[in-house]
Amino acid sequence: MNQCVFLGIKPLLELAYPSDLRSEIASQCKVLCEHIGGNEWQKQDGPLSGADIIFATWGMPALDDNFLKAAPNLKAVFYAAGSVKGFATPQAYERGVLVASAWAANAVPVAEYSVATILLSLKRFWSYARLAKETRTNDRPLEVAGAYRSKVGIVSLGAIGKLVAKRLGSYELNLLAHDPFADPEIAQDLGVSLLSLEEIFSVSDVVSIHTPWLPETEGLINGRLVSSMKQGATLINTSRGAVINEPELCEVLASRPDLTAILDVTWPEPPDNDSPFYSLPN
User: Are 222 and 251 in contact (CB under 8 A)?
Assistant: First the structure.
């Protein structure tokens, strides 16, 4: 029978692997340790040294030479979260370690959140909620886009971007996307028109960011793009905070109170205590 450990941030491990799932795992694998913290593995040489399998989530350390030395029997890492780029290494793959992720399952709640937020943004829910609190009235201007024939821009058609486009397909929207690697046939099947990043920002009522964090995408969404957005438009980011140039975003938001930014992620996370994100009303 294989031997296993659970590794990661404890509250998140408990969320990702509830008691019934742990019992199922224990019926097929001898559990050596119920919890090893992401930064505590060096102190836990005993359990880790005998582990064939690691069940992990957020907080998984890099599979570098030191880690692999401490886990000589390691065959597989099952990661109950999305991208494995933060910890998977060439050394692990060279040694034949299987790395599996829950990226497909993880995409579903992110897509659900994105679609709900996009639809609320098309009704300008956020700005009208602010206005009601400020004026204590229900007075509001009439320029509400709504969903009918509005333009929604999706930046990156990865697993989540595709799922968002598919779910938005049931609404009478004009779906636009920017992804230099997108298959035109897949985009056509999704009912999505492929445009440049500049076009997406200048014509969309809502722009939803789903870009992976890579060296090439850091700061991809800059102040120039945000400042080109339509009156009353909304920017939504559920990917990674670092893909937005946040200082430039704050400058634009301060000068364009008609715009709204919905940031599910930031960099750093959480923002610094003196970040304008805490004080900017939009």
Answer: no
Other C-beta atoms closer than 10 Å to the C-beta of 120 total 15
Answer yes or no: is pLDDT of 183 > 80: yes
Q: pTM here?
A: 0.85
Q: What is the DSSP string of 170-189?
A: TSS-EEEEE-TT--HHHHHH
What's the pLDDT tens digit per position in 222-231? 999 999 999 9
E-strand spans in 212-263? 234-237, 260-263
Name the strand (E) or helix (H) holding 167.
helix 159-168
In a 3-state reduction of DSSP, which class is residue 270? coil
Burial status of residue 121 (CB atoms within 10 A of its CB: 0-12, 13-18, 19 or more): buried
Nearest residue to 145 via CA among 262, 41, 34, 234: 234
Measured CA to CA, the distance from residue 203 to residue 174 in angstroms comes to: 11
